[in-house]
């Protein structure tokens, strides 16, 4: 029997494939699913529908701060380190994404966005995946700008 959740999952996967994403690891449970997709530059996002939340999809990603960068952040004077954390927060606010993990010590930053089924169109969904990409880039570029000198 095909459920609404299955129909939505299949539609979302087709949209992502059409947009050039590669489908990776999948997890399917009754009325819930999740999968990882990767773009042509290696950026990964997770798309999921949680149990008992058939009206909502969550699109999110995590940016893991490598040990070298984490060490460089830790070596910054406190004022400069705090300024970096605030710069990251303000850049992420501009993306209008939900985010967490922007604190010291900076180990992993999560960015995400929800879309409700009543607003689910190919355009709306792919705009949200593009927003997640911009959130990933915001973190990478703020850190890159700081430490590439």
Overview of the molecule:
- This protein is α+β, with helices and mostly antiparallel strands.
- The chain has a single domain, classed as 2-Layer Sandwich (Yope Regulator, Chain: A).
- It is 46% helix and 28% strand.
- It has four helices and six strands.
- The protein has a six-stranded antiparallel β-sheet, with helices on one face.
- β2 and β3 form a beta hairpin.
- The longest helix is centred in the last third of the chain and has 26 residues, at 122-147.
- It is elongated, with a radius of gyration of 17 Å.
Topology:
Blueprint: H1 4-18, E1 22-29, E2 32-38, E3 44-49, E4 56-64, H2 67-75, H3 78-95, E5 98-100, E6 108-116, H4 122-147
Antiparallel strand pairs: 1-2, 2-3, 3-4, 4-6, 5-6
Helix pairs in contact: 3-4
Short description:
This protein is an alpha+beta fold and 149 residues long. It has four helices and six strands. It is elongated, with a radius of gyration of 17 Å.
Number of strands: 6
Low-pLDDT parts are none
Tell me the helix content.
Answer: 40-55%
How many DSSP helices?
A: 4
- How many angstroms separate the termini? 58 Å
As a whole number of angstroms, the C-alpha radius of gyration is 17 Å
**Under the CATH scheme, which class?**
Alpha Beta
List keywords for this structure.
6-stranded antiparallel sheet, 149 residues, Yope Regulator, Chain: A
């Amino acid at each position: 029997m095909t459920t609404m959740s299955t129909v939505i999952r299949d539609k979302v996967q087709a949209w992502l494939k059409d947009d050039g994403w590669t489908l990776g690891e999948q997890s399917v449970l009754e009325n819930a699913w999740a999968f990882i997709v990767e773009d042509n530059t290696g950026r990964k996002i997770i798309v999921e529908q949680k149990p008992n939340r058939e009206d909502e999809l969550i699109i999110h990603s995590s940016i893991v701060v490598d040990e070298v960068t984490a060490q460089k952040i830790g070596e910054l004077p406190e004022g400069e380190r705090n300024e970096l954390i605030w710069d990251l927060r303000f850049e992420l606010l501009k993306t209008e994404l939900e985010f967490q993990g922007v604190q010291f010590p900076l180990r992993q930053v999560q960015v995400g966005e929800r879309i409700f089924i009543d607003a689910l169109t190919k355009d709306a969904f792919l705009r949200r995946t593009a927003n997640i990409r911009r959130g990933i880039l915001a973190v990478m570029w703020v850190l890159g700008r700081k430490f590439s000198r």
